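[[Per-residue structure]]
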Amino acid sequence: MENLESPYSKEQLNSKDVQKNLRFILNLEESIKSMNVFNHPLLIKMSKGLFEKEFVAFVHAQFSKHIRVFTAELSNLSGVAPDIESRFMLFDNLYEEMGRGKLYNCHYNLYLSMPDSIGYDLKR
């Protein structure tokens, strides 16, 4: 947890269920690392500046649609979490996503401001 104290005791964190879930997450992360996600040819070319800034802004704007709904879905998930501890954990993530209470640091707003660094305003 990044901002709040963990609601779980050491005994709970060492339980068989938590350890099983941790192994699942670690295996999932390893599986994801072997996939062609962040080293996709499109992203590599974009990082090398091989596209016009308008195209980069277009791709950025399209991907922003996925990012925009993340906090809404995180909020929804928190509302249906089975217990208060799970809600607390999700709230910690939501608090971080929402810029720790500062609107200008909200991850979605930061994402939208990134094209400014290449001189392209997505709000146009």
In short: DSSP finds seven helices and no strands in the chain. The CA atoms of residues 35 and 43 lie 14 Å apart. The chain has two domains: 9-38, 51-124.
